[in-house]
Amino acid sequence: MQAHVDRFLYHLEVERGCSAHTVAAYAVDLRRFAEHLERRGRTLERATEEDVTALLVVASKAGLAPRSAARLLSAVRSFLRFLVDDGTLKTSPARRVKVPHLPRSLPKLLQEREVLALLGAPDERTSEGVRDAAMLHVMYAAGLRVSELCRLEWGDLNLEVGYVSAYGKGRKRRLVPLGEVAAGKVRAYLEVRGRWAAAGEDALFVSRKGGGMSRQHFWRKVQHYARQAGIRGDVSPHWLRHSFATHLLVHGADLRSVQTMLGHVDISTTEIYTHLDRTHLRKVVERHHPRG
After folding, report:
1. What is the pLDDT of residues 21-64, one digit of tens each?
2. From CA 272, how far away is CA 234, in angstroms rounded?
3. Of 243, 230, 229, 232, which is closest to residue 280 (Cα–Cα)?
4. What is the pLDDT of residues 70-113, one digit of tens each?
5. Least buried of 88, 90, 178, 244, by fewest C-beta within 10 Å?
6. What is the CA radius of gyration of the chain?
7. Which domain holds residue 187?
8. Do 148 and 166 meet the contact criterion of CB atoms below 8 Å apart?
9. Same structural domain, 227 and 121
10. In-domain check, residue 142
């Protein structure tokens, strides 16, 4: 089975352009599936629908969260479908297994005043503060994922026209407008980059050591500045992306435009922000309407 798994992981990485993080997650889930079949004395070719269902039952009893169980089933279904497509299996035993029901949780976001406090937290009298301010402003101005932000290269920003070219999921690029405030922060940062960047380094945002800024390093930066700004909770960089989308909708942007800027393939993924928008409006009525 491992040979089939290796072929599938290669397919994910090379042909579908999945990130290393996604490929690693699939590898973990498929290892769990392989061990499950081995315990039941099943080969891949003799696996049944009941085997796949039992996998979810066992995982649930072991404490696997519903969202993780759904990801596990998704990995197994994709793997088995891949083997059907290439002729290894005649049918997939997972084709009729239902995905566990998941309650739809709303993404966490910052209020506009909190975003302003976070963006203003870096001390721009220092070189690190100038860089961090530029990163925070670009992320919020363009609604980038943290991986997209850290992956930006020197040529991905056009400051004259005012846009950023983001390299997103599935190795797809999209153009997102970049406001003048964020562009100004980047211009101020470029002098810092010129002093820090190692020879031949393409990453736009670099550390003092000269290499590209890592996701983990920037994550810690965001948490540090959130505490400094007096924002409660375990704030992550993704909160800025959620805030970008929600604030656009609150101020009148149409859903299709927000979908394009976020790089969502399916508009249903973007529609969750309309729920946030309604929540915001309800709070406004409760706070300001005389009969609220």
Report:
1. 889 999 999 999 999 999 999 999 999 999 999 999 998 888 88
2. 21
3. 243
4. 899 999 999 999 999 999 999 999 999 987 665 566 678 899 99
5. 90
6. 23
7. 112-288
8. yes
9. yes
10. yes
The domain that contains 28 carries what CATH number? 1.10.150.130
Are 44 and 130 in the same domain? Answer: no
Distance CA 135, CA 38 (A): 48
Give the number of C-alpha atoms closer than 13 A to the C-alpha of residue 152, restricted to the C-beta side: 27
Which residues on neighbouring strands pair with residue 163, listed in sequence order?
158, 177
| 136 and 270, same domain (yes or no) | yes
Same domain assignment for residues 63 and 123:
no
Can you state the percent helix, strand and coil of the chain, rounding each to 5? 60, 5, 35
| Other Cβ atoms closer than 10 A to 58 | 14
- From the CB of residue 191, how many other CB atoms can be counted at a distance below 10 Å? 11
- Tally of domains within the chain: 2
Q: How far apart are CA 52 and CA 84, in angstroms?
A: 16
- CA distance linking residue 246 with residue 259, whole number of Å: 11
- Point out the residues that are catalytic: 145, 169, 238, 241, 264, 273
Is residue 122 domain-shared with residue 263, that is, in the same domain?
yes
Within the chain, strands assigned E span 157-158, 163-167, 173-177
What's the chain's length in residues? 292
Tokens standing for residue 155: 């040529």
For the beta carbon of residue 17, count every other beta carbon within 10 angstroms. Answer: 13
